[in-house]
Design goal:
Length: 228
Amino acid sequence: MKHIALIEDDQLLLKRLALFLDSQPDYQCSLRASSLGSFFEQLSPDTPPDLLLMDVELSDTINTINHLKKIKTLIPGSKVIIVTGHNHPSYISQALNNGADGFYLKGSGLRKLLEAIETTFAGGAFLAPEAAIHVLPMLRNNPGNPKEEPVPEPLPKQEKKTLPSAINLLTARELEVARGLVKGASYKEIANDTNISINTVRHYVKVLYKKFDVTNKMQLSHKIKTYL
């Protein structure tokens, strides 16, 4: 039996992931936390998890990638998979350089998450396809050691992409949420259409606002409706 720990601030998603893991014959969710503080409080050095699934942005100020090296020293034999809605190259390169064993994008589905876990336990390194496309150029430019860039919290204005580039960087789930917003759908309608929770919809909306430097749905729709 493999023991898995979760760090996720979306309570509904946290519960859903824990139930999913506990339903698998070979896995058990032995620790779940909605913050780094809660994780450290619950962590026992005598019984460390075999794998940690860790969300990136737990608040406006906490980015767990910056704490990954510390976490790896506390659970040196454990694997860590980053779970996030972002696929920005800076997140990926810094996560890998700080010791992440895999990179899973939210909204990819539970089967894909199970694939990520099984790949990691088998000694592989799982990268979501949307993330892998950013890793290959980094490896080509600097073989053996992907270039590490500062993690955007949020992206400085000078690093913001032009609209066509930003659209191309959106994940499939972000595109679904963006299209729903442009159509005028409510958060509940988008959640029902995409089979995710309302809190997860809110997370993706925040991500979209950051990526396109807007503060409300009307501004976002005005910027991107001609590209969708």
